[in-house]
Amino acid sequence: MVTTRSTLRTQEMLLNMGPHHPSTHGVLRLILRLDGEVVEEVFPDIGYLHRGIEKIGESLTYKQFIPYTDRVEYLASMNVNHLYCMAVEKLAGIEVPERAEYIRVIMTELNRIISHIIGCGALAMDLGAFTPFLYGVVEREKVNDLFEMTCGQRLTYNYMRIGGVSQDLPEGFVEKTYAFLEEMERRWDEINRLITENEIFVQRLADVAVLTEADALSYNITGPNLRASGVDWDLRRDMPYSVYDRFDFDVPIGKGERGTVGDCYDRYLMRVRETYESLKIVRQALDGLPEGEVQAKVSKVFKPPKGEVYMRAENPRGEMAVYIESDGSTKPSRIKFKTPSFNSLGVFNKICRGQMLSDLVAVIGSFDIVLPEVDR
Amino acid sequence: MSNAFKKFIRAVTLVDLFKGLALTGSVWVRSIITPRQVLVTRPYPEVKRPAFPNFKGHHGFLLNEDGSLKCVGCGICAGVCPAKAIRVYTEEGKDHEKVVVGYEIDAFRCIYCGFCQEACPKDAIVLTRLYELADYDNRACYRWKMDRLVEVGKKRPLFRDEVNL
Ligand code: SF4
Ligand code: SF4
Q1: How far is it, in rounded angstroms, from Cα A57 to Cα A62?
Q2: Does residue B163 have a pLDDT over 50?
Q3: Those residues with Cβ within 8 angstroms of residue A101's Cβ, 6 or more apart along the chain or in another chain
Q4: Given this model, what pLDDT does residue B165 score?
Q5: CB B92 within 8 A of CB B98
């Protein structure tokens, strides 16, 4: 392949991939400069899903903004809810009851699991394996049912509140979650048997679009994508927030098992392994779930003191952060989200050069980007 | 070398393909033997999935036992609504009291967050378990008028009886 590339040059071609390409996970347009089938340059054109959420936040009260945080990243709404509420609590110095913290961890980890199911399933689907996605969605439905039981919504949960969660866990939630965990472990093994060890699947991903450790750090890649490049960093373990310091879990690191460290296969593998870790965390949190209140006392007209706050949290796609500036009134004067997929998209041009066009689909899938989060 | 050879053998003999097919095949067989455990999709309009008790669906407007509106027209729900979807129309009555003459919800603006339900001091507005919100007339959805909301509110216990969770 390499020899043909250097000797056989074709006319340069500009190609638009998306915004309606089925494998661009949302509305992403990639402008590609191609030499035959080889990608010379990738230029992601973003902004199709810009809804001005940060600006909307300035005209809403702190509590009213919570449903909007769901929509920043719709595949991991609980995580964004959690992040935003933690930030406001830090700003106002509110102590969250222990039970609420545990419930929050359970919810965010369950959300991480279903987000990774979609991430792995969609990657496999983009590469032509439809079955794992459908098997995964069956499990995802169960978590959606758990969420619907608790907060009445299946996608944009709006469950967390400043100082706690909106309502206590319903009857039967704990038992159902235990049952789900058991089932999920079995099913996830099954799905792994189906694709993770599959030679065809491995060959599509191994050695494709290698992201080196130095590049990952300089482009500020976070989360599973960073760990796939061999950097041992997880916010939940290294800078624990909420009650994460009480749980015992491993952080999988990319080792280049089937190719080079930081290739698409490693990024995929991180998601697979992290799902097991999340299952572990949920189990521990359920075991140690304390009794008590789920909502701290917060005045109805909530006015945090003047000041600013920056809060980070480990989301399924990487580190998400929120910056809130308060002028002492009921409404924030500035909200800013730092989202991980935006950075992932930024590194595309660097690592996709010289890849085949058909591998680009694998790269997009392996980074597991979510477009609403990029555009906000 | 041996590794590459192994890879080659695996690729040529399609071992992984058959492994995968064995799994999907076993699921298929199970779906014939025990369809209730394996088949998870429902033939929707015929079989409707019941929503969970605190599902946030179509709004309902509740009445007192004597048939009068529970709502007192305080407008708190309109104030807390993050999507600004609620409009409350009030008039001054005979004894200078507030009379609710109209109540509208813009179904397209509403994000079904449930804040109105949480905030209402009289528990007058609730989000019911009705999730079939489609309508033949889009203009009707810009404004869910009071009569529609009251009707849904009256039927609310029905949604509970119909489903057996
Ligand atoms: S559910 Fe939320 S968005 Fe809809 S009317 Fe009530 S407060 Fe407004
Ligand atoms: S529905 Fe409730 S909150 Fe809204 S105006 Fe009526 S009484 Fe007030």
Answers
A1: 8
A2: no
A3: A242, A243
A4: 33
A5: yes
Q: What does the block give as tokens for A334? A: 């500035």
Task: Give dist(CA B159, CA A41) in Å, integer.
Answer: 56
Closest CA to A67 of A77, A55, A59: A77
| Residue A30: closest CA among A138, A19, A38 | A19
- Residue identified by tokens 């035959």 is A36
Helix (H) or strand (E) holding A267: helix A264-287
Range 100-139 of A in CB contact (< 8 A) with B = 131, 135, 138
The CATH classification number of B59-161 equals 3.30.70.3270
Predicted confidence band of residue B160 (pLDDT cuts 50, 70, 90): low
Q: What does the block give as tokens for A110?
A: 């369950």
Which candidate, A185, A187, A172, A169, places its Cα nearest to that of A293? A169
Spell out the domain ranges in chain B.
3-38, 59-161
Backbone angles phi, psi at A147, to 5 degrees: -65, -40
| Residue A182: CB atoms within 10 Å | 12
Question: A43: distance to nearest CA of chain B, Å?
Answer: 34
pTM, entire model: 0.86
Over pLDDT 70: what percentage of chain A? 97
Structural domains in chain A, CATH included, are 12-374 (1.10.645.10)
In degrees rounded to 5, what are phi and psi of residue B68? -85, 160
- The 10 Å Cβ neighbour count of residue A212 is 15
CA A119 centroid distance within chain:
9
A320 contacts A108 by C-beta, under 8 angstroms: no
A19 cis-preceded (ω within 30 degrees of 0): yes
Rounded CA separation A114/A139 (Å): 8
Residue A11 CA, ligand 1 centroid: distance in Å: 55
Closest residue in chain B to residue A142, using alpha carbons only: B40
Give the per-residue SS3 of B92-146: ECCCCCEEEEEEEECCCCCCCCCHHHHHCCCCCEEECCCCCCCCCCHHHHHCECH
Sequence-separated (6 or more) residues with CB below 8 Å from residue A376: A50, A51, A52, A53, A54, A72, A337, A339
pLDDT (mean) for A123-134:
84
CB atoms within 10 A of CB A186: 10
Distance between Cα B136 and ligand 2 center (Å): 28
Burial class (CB in 10 A: 0-12, 13-18, 19+), A176: middle
The answer to whether the CB of B61 falls within 8 A of the CB of B124 is yes
A200 and chain B in contact, CB less than 8 A? yes
